């Protein structure tokens, strides 16, 4: 985990200071870690001496000596599952001191069953998934004996992000990929927390090795931020159509890098529409409010996105939501575009 400032808790068997949130996870592995309050519990002299001679830096050098560059290191803002599995991998299973234990996500090939949400009926059904770095793809099969996969997802365009609240399961993972340059979503989980986090890191490993080949001069530090990404912002807003004469409709919006997508339902397999949001230099701006003549919106807090082609009119339910969306949009608009992003923008312009 990230550096702990003014921690209130400590593991007196590992010799590390921890935050309140992580102390609960440490309590669940008492065979490895025993926890005390720094201020409220009584400390024996030997325990104090042990803490003084160890500490977080020593523990990091010991227990994190062989973390693969692609392995996701969670921070305090990540979901409980990622934080718990990081702590268990580090201290309980000691995966980062024994590289042979990293095989489930380092081997370049992984297959197994995940519960996948059905596109039409919303039921979760067991499906076989196969990840192969050699073919550069993740596939899933509708039947165990099926010869042909139901879908082939190219590692090049794949992203995975944990979405426990949206999916309604603490181990819920959203995988997105591009099909005909449009985003497709699948929603999966596994009952075993280690299994789904191993899948997540295996996908990151595959992305890492793909990018190493695609960008041979790039350093690990350049590539690691590109392995998977969380969304900049998600939530409901109202939108109107291109003529801006239709009524406003409530839609679920997802801001994924420069793609603003909208869905009828948060768990839809594909977006109703996607908007590319470029940079200020390329003629994109974000304005507070809506044009004075706008009608038909139920929610009062408007946002206007100006692109070189047209204006997109959106409305938020609360001022807090509007401020958060405007901030997210402005972060994207203020960032200069990369050469490859101009190609994506051109494709959006030529969409029917």
Automatic annotation (TrEMBL):
Residues 107-208, 230-334 form the PH domain. The keyword Metal-binding applies. One of its GO terms (cellular component) is cytoplasm. SUPFAM superfamilies: ArfGap/RecO-like zinc finger (SSF57863), PH domain-like (SSF50729). Residues 1-104 form the Arf-GAP domain. InterPro entries: Arf-GAP_dual-PH_domain, ARFGAP/RecO, ArfGAP_dom, ArfGAP_dom_sf, PH-like_dom_sf, PH1_ADAP, PH2_ADAP, PH_domain. Keywords: Cytoplasm, GTPase activation, Metal-binding, Repeat, Zinc, Zinc-finger. CDD domains: PH1_ADAP, PH2_ADAP. It is found in: Cytoplasm. SMART domains: ArfGap, PH. GO terms for molecular function: GTPase activator activity; phosphatidylinositol bisphosphate binding; phosphatidylinositol-3,4,5-trisphosphate binding; zinc ion binding. This is ArfGAP with dual PH domains 1. It comes from Canis lupus dingo.
């Amino acid at each position: 985990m990230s550096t702990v400032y003014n921690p209130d808790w400590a593991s007196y068997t590992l010799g590390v200071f921890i935050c309140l949130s992580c102390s609960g996870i440490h309590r669940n592995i008492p065979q490895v870690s025993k926890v005390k309050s720094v201020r409220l519990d009584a400390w024996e002299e030997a325990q104090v001496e042990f803490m003084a001679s160890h500490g977080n830096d020593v523990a990091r050098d010991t227990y994190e000596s062989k973390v693969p560059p692609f392995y996701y290191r969670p921070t305090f803002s990540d979901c409980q599952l990622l934080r718990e599995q990081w702590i268990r991998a580090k201290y309980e299973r000691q995966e980062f001191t024994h590289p042979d234990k990293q095989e489930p996500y380092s081997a370049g090939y992984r297959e197994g069953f995940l519960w996948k949400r059905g596109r039409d009926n919303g039921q979760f059904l067991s499906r076989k998934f196969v990840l192969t770095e050699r073919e550069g793809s993740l596939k899933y099969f509708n039947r165990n004996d099926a010869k042909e996969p139901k879908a082939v997802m190219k590692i090049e365009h794949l992203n995975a992000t944990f979405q426990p609240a949206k999916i309604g399961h603490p181990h819920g993972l959203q995988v997105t990929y591009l099909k005909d340059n449009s985003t497709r979503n699948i929603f999966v989980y596994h009952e075993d927390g280690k299994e789904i986090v191993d899948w997540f890191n295996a996908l990151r490993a595959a992305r890492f090795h793909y990018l190493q080949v695609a960008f041979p001069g790039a350093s690990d530090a350049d590539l690691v931020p590109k392995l998977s990404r969380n969304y900049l912002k998600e939530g409901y807003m109202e939108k109107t159509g291109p003529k801006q004469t239709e009524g406003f409709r409530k839609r679920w919006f997802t801001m994924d890098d420069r793609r603003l997508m909208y869905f009828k339902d948060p768990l839809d397999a594909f977006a109703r529409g996607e908007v590319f949001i470029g940079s200020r230099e390329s003629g994109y701006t974000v304005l507070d409010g809506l044009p004075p003549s706008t009608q038909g919106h139920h929610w009062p807090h408007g946002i206007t996105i100006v692109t070189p082609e047209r204006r997109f009119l959106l409305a938020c339910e609360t001022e807090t939501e509007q401020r958060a969306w405007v901030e997210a949009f402005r972060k994207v608009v203020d960032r200069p575009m990369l050469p490859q992003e101009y190609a994506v923008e051109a494709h959006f312009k030529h969409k029917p």
